[in-house]
Amino acid sequence: MPAAEPERSSLKRTRNSAGEDAEPKKPRRSARNGADPATATEQTTQVKKGPLPSPLTHKDTTTTDSKQSTVSPSTGHRAENRNFTPLSSPPPSRVGGLSSPHADTQPFSQFLPPARIVYEVADEEAEGVWGYLIPATETSDVLVLKKRAACPVPSGLAGKPTGRQKVSKKHWEKAEEKYEESKSLNGVPSGGYLLGRHQECDRIINIPTVSNRHCLLFSENKYGDTIAVLEDLSGNGTYVNDGFVGRNKRRELQDGDEVSILNEARFVFRYPRNRDSNGFKQQYTILNQLGKGHFATVYLALDKSSGMRFAVKKFEKRSGPGERSKIDGLQQEIAVLMGVSHPSMLCLKDTFDESDGVYLVLELAPEGELFNWIVLNKKLSEVDTRKIFIQLFQGIKYLHERNIVHRDIKPENILVMDKDLNIKLADFGLAKIIGEESFTTTLCGTPSYVAPEILEQTNRRRYTRAVDVWSLGVVLYICLCGFPPFSDELYSSENPYTLSQQIKMGRFDYPSPYWDSVGDPALDLIDRMLTVDVEKRISIEDCLQHPWIVGARPVKPTDSTDGLTGAFESLDFSKRKPQRERTLLSSINEIEVKEVIATQPDGPEVKVFKKNPRPQGNGSAKGRAEITVEPAPDAARDPKEFMEMGGRGDEVLFDEGREGESRYPEQTVQISETPLPPPK
Questions:
Q1: Angle in degrees, CA 243, 246, 248, rounded to 5
Q2: In the CATH hierarchy, which fold is given to the domain comprising 368-611?
Q3: pTM for this structure?
Q4: Exposed site from 260, 393, 507, 637, fewest CB < 10 Å?
């Protein structure tokens, strides 16, 4: 039985961008095997000298070399004067003439007619043009790619929750949908340019096989120059120079690269005539440091041209293990932020890839993280929590409709914009774009907030958008009571379950007195969000319609018996009001406002917070509660008295020779004449 031939890939080999050098191709195997060893080296050397190698021909063909020095005539025969076909292409002329580039394949754009000048913007620098997307056919106009002022997206475009409104069941969901409709007409676009079938795309391609949001084009600043980046959002196929990009992968575009979508739509990318050469330090001035994390440092920066203040997230460039995952997370965050535009999403204004690090210029959040707000206030009221979660539910619904899962929702990644509790969801470093029916398998997130399906073994780990609902349920629990539902502090002989076991089993309750003042509708919503069974877990759309969100009135005794019974059946009373002492986040975390910085004359002040400062004089760990020891009963005793009582055995207080007379001086002993009561 003959051996099976190896399967050949159906993907085309990527063509190089214009100006890129290509490696010279090896001669065919038949050519190498049939070549004379004496002349093989000479022929190979001859091919390498030529800028555009041609296939070799040998003795069994009808052609010979035009150079007499490489092919000698047979002995005894006279050389005939013939017009021979050359064995290889002649060397290009050094003076005048036309020659092809060194690469043996070029972008499709070289076969297009010369670019029309009419599509170019007159003042490219003033209008912020960083590229042109030119259709290969005349079916559509040229898409001019400009730097768009996507920051900030005003709050309240999807409704203005106060936390006290009583609205219809679908009020907040309709408000989100209304924002989507108005956005397509006169709303704030995202920083990047979307290509696809959806109406919000900048270039709509009405072909059934094209995804709703097929690919994304955006600009980055790298080493003082502006570059264009293509991010593939679809698994159907996005190609650059016939090379497959791949979902969630990016490709830096060169001038003249061809972008193809399923062979249905072809475009040629062109840079403007005058490319921007301003680096980060030429455009921004760093004023103060706002915070520092594991991977990045956040600064307050001033835009020199406009005078506006922004938050700048700087990632240091390091080498070593684990650095690749940081870069991937950073690129993912840039791609997600460039492709979204919503009042509940933090806005990315610009990016710079410089030699000393990567800079993300972000919208400024003057009030800091929601975590700081919880610690300073110990917990939040139902009204304030409801106002926050209406915005969060709307923002997550927006992401899920675009097949984006955040995967790291926690109070530290929710930023408070003002004292009215308008919030922005941030930190998309772990976000992932998934297909309609696809699952993700990466272990990610923060331990206390991850869903149980994420903690499964690798071969069984399958999860979808529902992980964000679980994380939101944990945050909702913390806001209303001030401590997390799952914690290692709950481990005891009566409750021998670790943190991961508690999450997998969904073991949590609402201890008294912390939850006594919280209504049952809020507890019901948390129960539905923290459901271990993914199929039974509430969806983000149903969260927006929940009675606690829309302000529906609770069940009253005057209601019908059926309605009252149905309401009680949905409540799990076994979790309610167990007597248990819990540790508040405010008692183990110390947050203080280190500095208040004034920004614009009419703008809000920016608060700089200091988390868990290290106490002076001891070695307590950062973020841990200081261990205090209760004073012993003898703490107030006079040391001299203690020394006098020391020695061999106990000091004799009463001398047997003297009846009832004390050895201590009379001024130190007061004898009471009142007899003591008999012991009970």
A1: 140
A2: Transferase(Phosphotransferase); domain 1 (1.10.510)
A3: 0.60
A4: 637
